[in-house]
């Protein structure tokens, strides 16, 4: 996806924002260029591409492939205020956080289990051209007691990718139903004072 930008001088961002533009910077180890982009256009591209997809940033006619590395938000207005674009090099790996999409309905939930989702993304290092948009995992075969860990994602990634997260971290699990356990504990808690009360009455008699 393409996004147009213009070079700008550092500072004086108030006038840019009033004109519907958003200040940003394009950088890497050899580059540090302030730019401006149309706020609405950036918002549309960012919602579609996120931080894990390469964007063709056209800066005054020159196309620079970039990743969105950081976005400053106006919490009150819920609008982007500034963005950091990392200019990627084709033959150099980049680190990205890929979203994990869970597909299907775990068979264990049909048997009363509960789905416990612990991670929604994974941190990897990979060449820009090999970055997958998302990692789609089929969880329909998970029974009660089954789980998936970060190490299981290797099968879904390019062979050249390196996972930067701890491989033992859990992603999702199907845990046993808790309601029955809680009900049993409640019954035990209620039963105990009744026995004590009954014994106290017997002692009084």
Summarize the structure in short.
The chain is built from 4 helices and 13 strands. By secondary structure, it is of the alpha+beta class. It folds into 2 domains: 87 residues, Ribosomal Protein L25, Chain P; 86 residues, Ribosomal protein L25, C-terminal domain (RNA Polymerase Alpha Subunit, Chain A, domain 2, Beta Complex).
Walk me through the structure.
The chain has four helices and 13 strands. With 205 residues, it is of the alpha+beta class. It folds into two domains: 2-88, Beta Barrel (Ribosomal Protein L25, Chain P), CATH 2.40.240.10; 95-180, Ribosomal protein L25, C-terminal domain (RNA Polymerase Alpha Subunit, Chain A, domain 2, Beta Complex), CATH 2.170.120. Strands 1-3-2-6-5-4 form a six-stranded mixed barrel. A four-stranded mixed beta sheet has the order 10-7-9-12, with no helix packed on it. A three-stranded antiparallel beta sheet has the order 8-13-11, with no helix packed on it. The longest helix is centred in the last third of the chain and has 26 residues, at 179-204.
